[in-house]
Design a protein that fits this description.
This protein has nine helices and no strands. With about 180 residues, the chain is mostly helical. It has one domain.
Length: about 180
Amino acid sequence: MIPTPEEAYEITKKYNTGEFHLSHARIVGDVMAWYAKDLGLEAEADYWKAVGILHDVDFELYPEEHCQKAPELLRENGVDESVIRAVVSHGYGICSDVAPERLMEKVLFAADELTGLIGAAALMRPSRSVSDLEVSSVKKKFKDKKFAAGCDREVIRRGADMLGWTLEELMEKTILAMRESPNVA
């Protein structure tokens, strides 16, 4: 089964109860849907969104086995293998040896980590919002290794490279995607 975004969220809620993880799932889902539309793949937007929502399905319960337990949890829920592969590929080189191959997988790999950095940068602004966040501010925070230290800069760089985009292009697009998300403050 290819889950709808609503079904994906229900599956995610089975294994995640913390608001941080649920919020991150919704934000990444929204960002993925935005990217599908931006890249001219509007018909796939719900599919991309569902993958984004499910990408960390195993993280809260199994942080040490992230991307290793996801296939089991998703199969228990009848989720299609294409979704499982995409979910597992977002951990490539970190906790998975499944390389992102499809465009959607590369976007997920690139944007997931970056949403955390952008979200943290937005909270430092007087507005506490992405609505007025500029690429230059994100680049400055990106260079500060102590800022949002949990966001792996090398993963973000590798993601931009996979897509053939500059870091600035990836940042700009992801900021725009997050501005459209009703789940981002």
